[in-house]
Predict the 3D structure of the following.
Amino acid sequence: MTATTPAAAALLGVYARVGPTFVAGEGCELIAADGTRYLDFVAGIAVNALGYGHPVIRDAVARGLESGLIHVSNLYHTEPGERLAEFLIERSFAQHVFFCNSGAEANEGAFKFARKWSGKPGIVAFSGSFHGRLFASLAATDRPDYRRPFEPLVPGVRILPLGDEEEIETAFARDDVGAVIIEPVQGEGGVRPMATEWLQLLREQCDRHDAALIFDEVQCGLGRTGTLFAYERAGVAPDMVTLAKPLAGGLPMGAVLLTEKIAAALGPGDHATTFGGGPLVATVALEVLKAIAEPDFLRAVTAKGERLGARLTALAVRTTRVREARGRGLMWGVELAEAAAPIVAAARERQLLIASAGPNVLRLVPPLIVTESEIDRAADVLAEILA
């Protein structure tokens, strides 16, 4: 590990940064200042879907810069954001799109939209959830240690036990629930895919009680599970989907996809953002989405995900240090019988970058362009560490 430099010390200390200083990337590898290459199964926390140096992103950035329009503001029309919105609508349940700059902003926007439409302040989230670190999204995040220093947060948010039908019915009986938010595959909460039956139940309850169903696909959406949107795997259409991480290939961008029903309650001045959907990021995002949405690309993600899942599941058979491997597509968690942090550090020492998802779960979210040989290389490193 490199020592902290004066320049690094100038940054606010809210991140516990580790490892070397990275200066370049190529494909699925990050390159450190000393030239060491690291196989990256973090991908900027599921952001870099096309890896590093991909020609789609490089060419799109160059085209975006040619116009000279990096930013115009949403006071005026620009073509890239409108074309991107059309692309998303054509391939989803939605009739409208709102662009912002991050996943937390997308969730905050979705909460506002749900409240304006429903007229009800209550928000239901679930155990294991992670929806962001702003005041409403943090209130809906099941991390008490994260929430406690910043309370009081937005009131009216209830975090219910995941999968508890009785608790859901009790919550709706109060008749103040305007929104239910859930990740189709929980990320920070341990990489937990939601059962189709549970998502269907939430859809039914929201329909019955005039509440908006929000799917947080910030981490699990846009090809990560092998379909363009994670909700497609369950066959359950929400009222809103929030997106971010891979949307603009590493440039900051978030989005809320919403139905006509919700959008009809909103008008000029109800919500806004300075930078959301700007010409440069929207140009890049459209090309990234076109690449990911290709059927052959998504089929390859599914096949590679099955390979990664099989290798990780085999670890659970071979060693009692692994309790379970679970995931979908190229989003996998390995639940350990011990702390995850030492395994993450040991992998980094062997030039493999992985992350944790809670205290005892290893998270593997490689670029979607990862090769079979790179999957085997990562699995071999983990097998060596856990042997």
Notes: The first helix runs from residue 6 to 9.
